Each structure stands twice: as structure tokens, then as C-alpha cells.
Amino acid sequence: MILSELEIFAFKGIEETSCFFSPKLNGIFGGNGMGKTNLLDAIHYLSLVRSHLGTIDRLSIKKDHEEANIVGTYLLESGEKERIALRIRAEKPKQLSRNGKLYPRLSDHIGRFPIVIVSPQDYRLIRGGSSDRRRFLDRLLSQLNKNYLNELVKYEQALLQRNNMLRQGMRDSSLLEILETQMALAGCKLLQQRNAFITRFSPLFLKLYKMVSGQAEPVSIHYLSECSTTSEQFLSNLKLRREQDFVAGTSTYGVHRDDLLLHLGDELMRKVGSEGQNKSFLVGIKFAEYMILSQETNCKPILLLDDLFDKLDESRVSNIISLVSQEDFGQIFITDTNRKHLDKIIAEQGGDYHLFEANKGSIKAFN
To answer: Do the bridges between strand 332-336 and strand 25-29 make them parallel or antiparallel, or are there none, so unpaired?
Structure first.
């Protein structure tokens, strides 16, 4: 699967652009604030129907416009083409269509066009709160498994309703029982799938971290949860927390409070890691995400690398370039303010490539 063409209208700082892409390597260069990251975010929107930057949808619409439109043409391995069109409006729900037919639910689209992005925003995985790490897990597992996404939606809906009751002091025990049962059933399934995933993910991450860093530093990833893996005990624990939760005004027990522990040696990476170690850790996680998606979907995801090489020493840059030049990786989009990094990748991978220049929101092919 490759993205062969992208059309953008009034999206963020981009007024209008149309790009035809290489099936392998696409480099976008230009100064900061010129539109490179916005181009990658448009591609991200087409796969996951949301901004990677956490931008509110209405703020993705260019100033003085009523809506933004992103249209992508994908070429499948079968040779068929699929056209995905996203319409973002300020005061109305997003509309997503596939080959001219609207999706009844946006979630039906998730996982159809797998994607992995590595950007400065992803430092939240290491330096941010537990919600950032859970969001990473949920996004990845939702691309892998529709059942996971369905259970996540059920859990979050029940959690939202329970929290609303707690804040309003609504002590309807029958309704609380229903919501807590939904949370327990869905929460156990989420917990089991997260645990099983980390068991598969961790060895792959360790391998890729060593390849990127060139070091044998002791790093590790562990999943942390206080929740029970049986729905009966999960439900019992929710009931036991009710009075405490009414005081707190929120649910203090559940998989919505779980975390990933990212360690360098015996310490958390965010506390002791250098700039290079943090970035190597992040790249290791993201490349492991790529490999898992590729293996389990039988489709090479689109890989977006936004400003990846900033603040990395030459050896780590070379290691990453060697890695992404391998056949394991499919279509790649790389942004950089420094042309020499792009030129080095182009020279090393030795295959087809397209180069683009971003300038004041305009994205043009560079010859």
C-alpha cells in the first residue's frame, strides 16, 4: 500500500496543494514553520482521522475558511486504487468517505491504512504523563485489532457516564451497577490485550534500540496496572471505591489509570536519559511499532519521520538511515531543515525518490 497522490485545501497553513509521491522515499525540506509538519499531519489525518499534534479539528482549518479538505489516492498491492476524502468543518462532525461512500462510523476506517509517525511531539511518550503512553498503546492496538477498538469505546463511554454521576453526586446504584459491569467486562479485555502485546513488543523494541543507539545499554518496557484480570474482581474493586470516588469526583480504579514504565537501567528514562538516549528510545519504540503493524496486518505501514535527525550524533543518524533503507520499510516521508540528511538517505537507499520544498505553506516538487 502506498499513498500515490495527496490533495490539500485550506488545511492549517496550507492554502492548496497537490503532490504526487514516490512509492519509496519522499523528502520534504524547508525552514521551520514552512508547512513540512502540516503535510505529514494531513497524511496522518487520512489514516487515523485525527491530528498527530493533538490539534482541535476546528483549528486545523485555515483562517478565513469554513472547512478543510484532504484527499488521498492509495494504490493497493492488488493494483486497485482507493480514494479517501476527509472533510473537516468548524461546527459540524468530520466526514470521511472511501471511494465516494461516507463511513457511517469514523472508527470503521481505523486500521485500513496503517501508519507510524516519529516526531518531536512523541517525546510525550517518555517525558509526558501516563495518559500519553496509554494513548500510544490504544492507537496502535486499535490499528491491529477492531475488537480492541470496540472494547475501548465501550469502556470509555461507561467511564465517562460514571464520572459524570460521581461529579453530580448521583447515587443511583442500579445505573452505577450497569456502568461498572460494562467497565469491568471491557476493562479486563483491554488489560489482557495490552499485557499480551507488551510481551511481544518488548523483545523487538530491545533489538531495535540497540541497532539505533549502537549501544548495549540496559533498557526495558513494562506495563503497570493495579487492575484485576478477572471481571468479577474488577467489578468488586469498582464497587469498593464508590465512596472514595464520590469524594474525588472521578473513577480512581480502572485501566484508564495504567502506565508503561520506560527504564534505562533501574531508573525511569525521563529522569536519567541523555538527549541521544531519549531519542534512540523513542525511535526504538516507534520502529518496533512499525514492525509489529507490518507483521500482523501483512501490510507495510506508511512511515512519517518528522525532523528526526535533529540533536542526534552522526553515528545514530547513520544507524537510522541504514535501518530505514532496508526492504523491511515501505513508503517513507521524511522532513528536515537540513538537505544533507535527505541527500545522504537518497544516496544510501539508492531507489526511487521524490523531493519537495516547503515554503510559506506551499509544497512543490523540487527538481
So the answer is: parallel
